[in-house]
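Sorry to interrupt, but I need a hand with the structure work. Go ahead and set the record down below:
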Amino acid sequence: MRKTFKAYYVWPKFPSISMSGNVCMLSCKHCNRVYLNDMQGFTKPERLLSFCKKLDNNGGVGILLSGGCDRKGRMLNLRRFLPVIKQIKNETNLVVKLHTGLVDENLAGDIADADVDIASMECIGSNETIKEVFGLDATIEDYANTFKNLQSAGVKHIVPHICIGLHQGKVIGENKALEIIKENCKPSVLVFIVLRPTPGTKYENILPPNPDSVKKIVTNAKKLFPNVEISLGCMRPRNNYREKIEETAVEAGVTRMEIPLETTIEKAMEMGFSIKRIDACCALPEEFEDKATRHP
């Protein structure tokens, strides 16, 4: 059977939405709220419901719900939005992907009860990185417990993501993060992003990790999760690193990518892949692909 490389395009059928507008209590060194400004902000649940009904009527596939965090790494406004998330699931055909933030057992249960399709959360494998980048008084155990709680609560799909080079562009806790995921949940998809030095952040002049570092981490992930699809997400360098990072990621085992270069698609075809283009987030589990796949 021929292998398939999947290219994902989120706009306009799978928009990103911030439940906190541009508000975040943290000043993470790689983000500093910059990425919140790229999302549509809905701080009132009823406005989100109205938006989602229109999106559904216009052929939308789903939504990514995200936002800023409080000083303990918990998603702002999440509890206030859970009832309307359940309503969206009951009254539309949209797929709901939620960035959860750190969660305890009770919140994990409430997320599952809201019928969230995909719970997505970053995994950090270094206590030093948590303090350096996020300024959080948290440990890797808090991240491990988040995945364990989501799994125990019965959330339909758990999709962890790991940022390669998050700690000042250095590879420090990424392999440990993979071990944490392996020990605490059964991921439907595994997503990698790569530190993108972003203007307006403290890391704007940091060098991103080199492509070989990306390749080594992805290769290790493929060994640990041989039956899980591995994706390269949207946050990655857009400079002259981009083509090489994408190419080496495919060589290492990535079979999904958000907005890949055409040269990357050509590389995948040279490696024997057929190409599938999907109007959704690259974390979309296979069961939802039919409604999002582009047909010639």
In short: The first strand starts at residue 4 and ends at 8. The mean pLDDT is 97. The chain has one domain: 10-259. The CA atoms of residues 37 and 225 lie 34 Å apart.
